[in-house]
Structure to design on (214 residues):
DNA sequence: GGGCTGTTTGGCAACATAGCCAAATAGCAA
DNA sequence: TTGCTATTTGGCTATGTTGCCAAACAGCCC
């Protein structure tokens, strides 16, 4: 039945994964892996409303993935946990498997 | 503005991450990393309704993370992409950062 | 102070997800 | 065929997420 401690652990982990489970947020992670960026820069690259971008950043900040630093009237974000970049390689191999499955399906 | 190809890539990646962004599904991945399990076994460990477990499995199968194999009247699931196990260590370090942040906040 | 730029927050409507129940399906054995 | 076990699917409601707009807030310069 999964004891409460174990359950809490998997819930905490899921919370972090959720914070990464959005295309925009994955893009931000990728971008921040190359250095800090201010919200304005990210917003220009992403193209969504500024408030939308800000909320995405807030989600990842709360999750502990990124950090913010105010300088003047700008806020710079940086990647706290570079190891998340290692996810991409593995995710790519999942995508390959999926692609292979689709190919098989189509014969 | 992010060109369509790049956008599609991050959307595909997010789809895989989403399939992992749930405590039950992370538990299943962890369990399957120790060997194949049938739905019934997983259901017993998880404690949710059988249909709920089945749907979680279906989501991960569609994502390309796990595979199913029918033997007799049972269906056995196995982990297709063991590298997802490497996520846990990194997620743990995110959780540590979050814990440290909380500690600081409380003084 | 007022006006400007940059960012966050609140609110809301659209959409997606989760989990339960009930019903359907599949395999096996009598 | 019937009956039994194992699993999936459909349908529903409750809950969570997303993204926009508008409003608030913060820092700077006049």
């Amino acid at each position: 039945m999964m004891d409460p401690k174990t359950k809490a652990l998997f819930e905490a982990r899921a919370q972090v994964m959720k914070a990464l489970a959005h295309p925009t947020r994955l893009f931000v992670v990728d971008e921040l892996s190359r250095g800090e960026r201010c919200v304005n820069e990210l917003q220009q690259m992403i193209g969504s409303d500024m408030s939308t971008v800000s909320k995405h950043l807030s989600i990842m900040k709360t999750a502990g993935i990124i950090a913010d630093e105010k300088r003047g009237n700008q806020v710079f974000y940086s990647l706290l946990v570079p190891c998340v970049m290692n996810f991409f390689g593995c995710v790519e191999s999942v995508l390959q498997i999926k692609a292979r499955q689709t190919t098989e399906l189509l014969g």
